[in-house]
Amino acid sequence: MKKNSGFTLLELLLTLALVAIVTAFAVPSMTEFSKNDRLTTNINSMIGHLAYARSEAIKRSVQVVMCVSNDTDTPNPTCTGGNWEDGWLVYIDNDASNTFDAGEEIIKAHAPLEGNNTITTVGVDPQLVYDNRGFLSGNTGSIQLCDERPGANGKTIRITTTGRVRLEVDTAC
Predict the structure, then answer these.
(1) Is 50 strand, coil or helix?
(2) Is residue 93 a contact partner of residue 106, using CB atoms and an 8 Å limit?
(3) 145: closest CA among 172, 110, 118, 116?
(4) DSSP secondary structure string, 60-102?
């Protein structure tokens, strides 16, 4: 006699209930993970661009500027001002004029931030100017990256006069 193999209705319902329970716990955790990962990616990109601008200023022995730009995806981007979350450029300022002129080389560009991330600055100009020694000309301070969550989920970059950066995590937004 052949034995039937398969699932009973009770076994199927218990399995589906177990999957539903596990999913109910996993989805909120994945949302938090995704938001934390987006913040980490964006802050690391900002730190990487700051370090790149500083190292290029030292390596090329010229002034390098990192400035706010909300048109990085156009053929001729400019330093337009605005907010850091709109995007930024890193360019070689050959004439040390602190302005992006025609013919100056853009060495890096960053598109606007994704995922409702915002950047708040304290004491930092809309452009950061590194001299040929890698020192920062002008104001220094902090750049804070946050998302829509309240509490201590933000990340802060502290910039010193020497051009070095320090990351602080879990800062209040």
Answers:
(1) helix
(2) no
(3) 118
(4) HTSEEEEEE-S-TTSSS-----S-GGG-EEEEEETT--SS--T
Residues 6+ apart with CB under 8 A from 112: 70, 72, 85, 86, 87
Listed as ranges, residues in the chain with pLDDT below 70 are: 1-2
Query: Could you tell me the pTM of the whole model?
Result: 0.81
The answer to whether the CB of 72 falls within 8 A of the CB of 45 is no
Residue ranges and CATH numbers for the domains of the chain are: 9-171 (3.55.40.10)
- Helix, strand, or coil here: 92? strand
Decide: 50 and 44 in contact? Cβ < 8 Å.
no
Q: What are the beta bridge partners of residue 121? A: 143
Q: Distance between CA atoms of 153 and 155, rounded to whole angstroms?
A: 7
Cα–Cα dist 87/78, whole Å = 11
Dihedral pair phi/psi, residue 96, rounded to 5°: 55, 40
State phi, psi for 127 to the nearest 5 degrees.
Answer: -140, 145
